[in-house]
Structures are given as structure tokens and as C-alpha cells.
Amino acid sequence: MTGAVSHDAPVLVIGLGRFGAATAGQLERQHREVLVVDTDAGLVQKWSDRVTHAVQADATDIDALRQIGAQDFAIAVVAVGSHLESSVLITANLVDLGIPQIWAKAVSRSHGTILSRIGANHVVYPEREAGERTAHLVSGRMLDFIEFDDDFAVVKMFPPAAVRGKDLATTVIRTRFGLTVLGIKTPGKAFVPATPESVIGQDDVIIVSGTEGDLERFAALE
Question: What is the C-alpha separation between 182 and 37, in angstroms, rounded?
Fold first, then answer.
């Protein structure tokens, strides 16, 4: 299968542990066509009425993947992470089948390196990323934290007292911390894009972008 992958293309999910189940469940809620595959007959039966298709098969066997039509998918998620050998074999099989987009769960940096080298387009570290996100949220001021490449992040947070009641043009958010306020939400109202004239209210929530270090320093501001 060649060319660009449609945003609503069917997805093959291999492995129905916590990560695979969460992925399949969210895709189903987005009304995507999903085929889930696992060696556990009980899990397959459990998911048979939740997703489009559920099949019991051993994805480490490329012939088994061919029999269920894996080669017809443009997107596959390898959610088998704790068994490194199985994870690598399944990913290699999907590469050999020519699937354009392969997302694979990794449990360590070395595991992820192997998956990338054999052809996984996207390597996901769910446990590590969840732990890092939690570490940012435990302080209490940040409500959500999304980190991107190159140490860039976007945060939903309660603003420090020092910037409340002021318009953005006169605060130190950009000049001192190098951050950009993207949006402001007043209780009972929708998020609105921020402008230099926007005033941060006492009970507002703000969306801020910048480097991880600058965001942490800003969140620590009294």
C-alpha cells in the first residue's frame, strides 16, 4: 500500500494489554474501523463486540498475519511491549508485509532503538511518558502537560497570582520566562485565543507554551 494514509484508515492493533486496549477503545470511540489481534481467546472474545473485528492469532507468525489480511492495513499498532522478542518479531513481520505506518510500544530506550532500526515509524514509551507527565502535575498548578520534541511543551494551568488581573502585554510571561499564552478560559465560558490585551482573571485557566524548564519556573512563581 503506497501513498498518503487517510486520516480515517482502518487500524490493526496487536496486543490487548492495557496499552492496546486503551488504543483500540479510543479508536472505536472515534468511529474508526479496528481489527484487534491477541493470542488470548478470552480477551479476543471480550473485545469481539467492542470493535469492528477481533481475531485470535499469533502475530509473530507472518503467515498468520497474512491469513487475517494484515497486509491490507495502512496503519498498525504493536502494543506488545513486555515481551521484547515478540515485539521485535511482530514489528519485523509488519515491515515485511509493507504496512506504511507502524506504531510500536517500547519499554526501554534500547528496545525502542531496535524497533526503530527494523522499521517502526513511531516508537511509543507509554510508561515513561505517563511517569514524566505525572511528575509535572503533582505540584498542583499544572492541570495537563503535553511535551513535544526539542523540550517544547504545552501546559494547561492555573496562572500564578503575580500575573492575575493583568493584561498579557504588561506581564512577565514572555519577557522574563519566554513563554507564550495561547488561550484563556474563564469559568463557565469557552477557551478563547489570547491577545496582548487579554486580561488573566483570578479564576481563569490558561494554556501556555514554551520549554519545559521555563514552564516549570513559571509554574513555581508565587
Answer: 41
